[in-house]
Amino acid sequence: MKLITVLGASGFVGSAVTRALARQPIRLRAVARRSVTPPPGPAETTVVAADLTDRAALADAVAGSDAIVYLLLADGGWRVAETEEAERVNLGVMRDLVDVIGAVSGKPPLVIYGGAASQVGVPPREPIDGSETDEPGTPYDKQKLAAEQVLKKATADGLVRGISLRLPTVFGENPAEGANPDRGVVSAMARRALDGQDLTIWGDGTVRRDLVHVEDIAAAFTAALAAPDALVGGHWLLGAGRGDQLADVFRLVAKEMADHTGRAPVDVTCVEPPSHAPATDLRSVTIDSTPFRAITGWRPEISLPEGVRRTVAALTTPVHGKART
To answer: Which sequence ranges form a coiled-coil region, renumbered to this chain (predicted)?
Structure first.
């Protein structure tokens, strides 16, 4: 059986990909900084706790892999990208990975990288489809693009068979024990609503985001692993293609939380954006993932209302006598 290694298996997206892969008859190696509970399924799963900024630990973690799913993200995500530690995780480990792989003879392994649609910078048009010129404006997006470029060069040099999947705004629940919860905008607003706080939107609420549930994103990675040949060497955008207005999303969150708690829905209000808000936060994003769909047959299956309902339900379901956080 082929060996698939997931780097960042305790992360929000990484744990979802690990759960999806565990349902296949493969050898699965789940690598994270701390030990995680192996998900159920027919896969022969091995859990490895490792600090992948240690080059030797990284080499051990990927040894013998037929395919590697790269979903590492510094703690704090884009908010801490200016730190040296974040750059080491977001970019430095990718450099080490291609060096480690290049030092081993044999068939180049497949490496599927979790990039970000925001690497393009301020969207030049709607929808974006991956053909745009990348002009990242934040440290996080610059690091993500640089890591993708390292992977593309290593692919051109024959060291790896690299694929970059640029992710949209991902949201949803995370049922995996010990895994990181969603820290994105949908879950953040759901937590505020659970605490009885108003939901505030920068601007007039008409900015749109392309929201995709985390299980659909995991399905995209399994689809890429199943049909990689036509994807190798490129970057591919994932999205629902609908662009949901944030005011509508926040009102949906408030309503679902009210339905689950029996309380009146919290208010949704618009406020002036702070001066430090990046330009990308104030521009709408819709994604055309037709190129990826045409090759893999993938498409999102979980609707926004269903995804929000599941997210809210997970937050309000008691765990060991306490509400989820």
So the answer is: none
